[in-house]
Amino acid sequence: MGPEVALTLKQSARACQAACALRAARTQSGIGLTLRTHLLYSSATRTERRTRCAHDDSACSYSSRSRSARPINAKGGVLGRKVEVVFRDDKGQPAEAVKHAQELVESEKVALIAGTFLSNVGLAVSDWAKQNKAMFVAAGPLTEAITWAKGHDYVVRLRPNTYEQGRMLAEKAGKMKYVKWATIGPNYEYGKRAWETFRDRLKELKPETQMVGEHWPTLGKIEPGPLVTAILNQSPDALYVSLFGSDWLAFVREAQKRGLFQKTFVVGILLGEPEYIDPLKLEAPEGMLVTGYPWYDIKSPAHQDWVARYTKRGDKHPVLGSLIGYITYQSIAEAIRKAGSTETAKLVAAFKGLKVETPIGPITFRASDGQSTMGAWLGTTKIDVQRGVGIMVNHEYVPGEKVLPSDDDVKKLRPGN
Predict the structure, then answer these.
(1) Which residue segment(s) compose the domain that 182 sits in?
(2) Does 367 fall in a domain?
């Protein structure tokens, strides 16, 4: 998951200039990026966001998204146009996101919307894009419904979805000894989907699996004490976690006091991402099976070069949101170049089978469903005493192609298409 982004290809620079946080040279056309912080910081002012960037770039990504445009502009922009950066905040609310999308298209005459973080917000913007025949690049939302059950020609998605990451984790967990499982996650689209995919695949691999408890706190309003008590009373062998942000921090601190992690094996979707493991510092639970982003230990020369350039510009290391922002820019720029235009119909066609060279290797936006083949890292958590934070060890990168359904299966998953 990562910061919410909305990227707009503007057909008029004039309409953007009053709102631009980073102004580009006046051109006949440009690209504008609007971003919102993580839901937990959605009410923050820009000054507060910059302060939070000191320890969590994904929480604001105000600067990282601006930096992501620089390499494109340094090479002449896209179709000879410079990239502009603009910011919007949907406050984690579907109606607010749709309002901004409508305003950007109607008032600012944008040709493309990108971003969103929460899955329910992404679904709302996707539905709006379908109704209004506007291109939507879903950068952050993870529910598989965006590209399958509720997919359509006007939406594509970058990140590996709940289905992919759930199956990656289940393939590993299914080979372990654990039989009795409980889960805890946020009570909305992402949390439910993340659990269902993992649970269903685990049962296929290990039919004797038992589900002994499900816990669904309201996002951002967790009361960890009663939840930890309930889980301990159910005595699961293992716990599947899809909490994130401040909910995860609060839960960890209560669980550590009560010895939950010593009694129960933990599998966590996203919990190896720096956004969620770094704030815990030495409190990060060790031995969890997680998906995440071990930026410090990826040996690819292209990625190492990107990290070096990123760190040099910002004097801090990247988080997954930084990488997602960069690849989002790359993907949209490549689509526009391929289309040779910003017309929606041409962008829709350009994204079908679009290949993008990224710092983590080539990815493709599949023609059958618009899902990119970007994968995820799977590994185990451990404390790095020298750095004072939790890290991922024994990790592997699982390409999206390895877990995504076939094109024939996608047809069954997209009944409306």
Answers:
(1) 163-297+376-407
(2) no
